[in-house]
Amino acid sequence: MSPFKHTFLAALIAAVAPVPAQAQNTSAPYLNTLAQSAGKLWFGTAMDTTTREVSDSAYMTVFNDTQIFGQTTPGNTMKWEFTEPSQGVFTFSEGDETIALAKATGKKVRCHNLVWSSELPAWVTGGTWTNETLLAAMETHIKTEVEYYGDGCWSWDVVNEALDSDGGFTSNVFYETIGAAYVPLAFQYAYEAVQSLGADIKLFYNDYGIEYSGTKHTAALALVQTIQGWNNAYIDGVGFESHYSTSWGASKASQLEGMSDFTELGVQIQVTELDVGCSSVPCSTSDLATQAQIYYDTVSACMDTEECTGMTVWDFDDEYSWIQPADYDGEGDPCLYYSDLSRHPAYTAVAEAIQGIDCSVC
Ligand code: G3I
């Protein structure tokens, strides 16, 4: 048996069989139970089956606990590089792992993502394209992937991070070849695929830096309106990635205002990739309080916004976060759990925000 299959089977077994008690904290309060009791769809977490996570039984015990996490997002494996590594050759097995893990523990899946500047295979980034040929490749990619995963996906992030901080379009092969129309066209293709399935799969635009007023926020509002005005395209929601650090986070008031600007357009909001890096590790006492406050403010803004339907952290274990000190100038430990799977104070803050009570650890 290949090591890959062995790892995946171990993860599936871990999904259904309890493992012996270890250091991991799986005691109450339970974030997903609390969020669902308060009318939200879920409190969820990203996870990445390309890493050691799936063979880490202590990690999987927390991940599999549906009282804590009721939704998951694949960190990498549904991106273009993984799903269509060569033109017309689709490999869905790694994304299938996420769907299987989710099904085993009653989680919904936010599928992520169909079109993005990053994690593209070389045949896309280095291809010689015309408007017509790239559109055809994009349409094939989107429709094949949406139709394959079907209603295994609760939603799709159709286009990810199309905008720059100055509000212009991020330079990538799609924008350079097709122009700004690639965004509504991607939504059109995704919507056509959903219609052909006859399924209720929600279509999202997902980005960071759009959560509060500013140039990028304004540009994202305009982009949503463009998609809404496009013939046979549809957008259900906007994902607020919500990547923050203790050196900078958005206040609850600014996030509430940011959410309401979008909900006025008739779309729902989800917090999709929440994390808050400490400016250095180990986190100082004051950084832990600031981190808790930013988690609290973000979750609280979502709880107070009826159209904010779910909240997801971008993994829950510092060990596997994308923010590692070596890569981010010393910043780290941005998750709700430390590497030994004990909890940051921010976990308590999130539970309190969901319940609408004052933060005791901020
Ligand atoms: O798969 C290779 C593996 O074979 C190799 O051994 C290893 C060595 O470094 O690299 C692995 O690929 C890495 C991949 O994650 C899977 O682990 C890439 O180098 C690494 O760049 C990639 O990073 C991902 C990043 O997106 C890419 O931009 C992160 O895991 C993922 O968490 C991050 O997620 C994004 C969201 O999709 C969009 N919003 C921002 C968010 C954080 O950057």
Automatic annotation (TrEMBL):
Residues forming coiled coils: none
Pathway: Glycan degradation; xylan degradation
Catalytic activity: Endohydrolysis of (1->4)-beta-D-xylosidic linkages in xylans
Record keywords: Carbohydrate metabolism, Glycosidase, Hydrolase, Polysaccharide degradation, Secreted, Signal, Xylan degradation
Pfam families xrefs: Glyco_hydro_10 (PF00331)
Any GO MF annotation of the entry: endo-1,4-beta-xylanase activity
EC number of this enzyme: 3.2.1.8
GO cellular component, one term: extracellular region
GO terms of biological process kind: xylan catabolic process
Protein's recorded name: Beta-xylanase
